[in-house]
Amino acid sequence: MNKLGIFMNFWEKNWDADHAKYIRKAARIGFDVLEFQAQPLLEMTDEKIRSLKALADDVGIELTYSLGLDRAYDVSSLDENIRKGGVKYLQDIIRKIHIGGGTLLSGVSYAGWGTPDNFAGDKRPYLEQSIKSMREIIKVAEECGVTYCVEAVNRFETCLINTAREALDYASEIDSPNIGVLLDTYHMNIEETSIGDAIRLAGDRLTSFHTGENNRTAPGRGHLDWDEIFGALADIGYSGRIVSEPFVMAGGEVGRDIHVYRDLIADPTEEKIDAEAKYLLNFEKEMIQKYSK
Ligand code: MN
Fold first, then answer.
1. Is 151 a catalytic residue?
2. CATH architecture of 4-290
3. Exactly one of 12, 245, 276, 284 is catalytic; which is it?
4. Of the candidates 54, 56, 146, 201, which lies 20 to 30 Å from 192 by C-alpha distance?
5. 187 Cα to the center of ligand 1, angstroms
6. How many angstroms separate the alpha carbon of residue 107 from the centre of ligand 1?
7. Between vectors from CA 41 to CA 40 and to CA 47, what angle results, nearest 5°?
8. pTM of the prediction?
9. 173 is catalytic
């Protein structure tokens, strides 16, 4: 059975929050993994990070990390000062993840989140900068035992890696056991001609997987074809983590950055979000069961 996870900001409108509360909550609901933005680790003491890790171990939760890279640290920047600053920033984040015993980072981690200012349509120069940066970043990931996943995201969030093919090509350029590929159903729905074929193309190079509906509600609530998705995961024998990443509340940093301009659950109280988390966990377990061979 795949490890099943949830992203903390299903519940929280700001990126930083009471991590301990959500470690306990994720365990209580029945998840195996809790994912959250890695940047707040930089503000935490090593002692604090270790105490969260101890709590997570205690309740049987694995912590994984994601990030949307602040453009001040854009490792694909044509400005060498910004690029070098970004390399150091991401290396520092990896070291913090390692202090907490973490082994996985994903997200828009290979370029500043968004399309570069004054982008003229040729992404190759930015891609080359990003690859140059990643070859430096990945050395620290190797030392720390962290797998650094590049996540293919939709065209409104990056110009560099929109599809599984582009993610795989990028990973090949880095050529390290610590570079990984993450696919996310919400982004695939926008960019891939066939979601099933994209998953099969990634095959055994798929390191981690995010789920979310076409409108970023919980899996099963929208119009994505979950039989196609879980069928394809079964086709490739995918046994890795499946982390659900719904965003259903307008407002706050999360609503702003994810472009959620209306509540996607009516009157989203904590109790209702808890119930929705239980629902999606059961939905995914049933889909895995349906396609288990
Ligand atoms: Mn994602």
1. yes
2. Alpha-Beta Barrel (3.20)
3. 245
4. 146
5. 8
6. 6
7. 130
8. 0.97
9. no
Q: What is the mean pLDDT of residues 218-238?
A: 98
Catalytic residue among 12, 35, 62, 151: 151
Ligand 1 centroid – CA 240 distance (Å):
15
How many angstroms does the Cα of residue 92 sit away from the middle of ligand 1? 22
Q: Where are the domains of the chain?
A: 4-290
Q: Is the pLDDT of residue 119 over 90?
A: no
Mark out the alpha helices in the chain (DSSP H runs): 19-29, 46-59, 80-99, 124-144, 164-174, 185-191, 195-202, 226-235, 252-258, 270-291
Return the bridge partners of 211, or none.
244
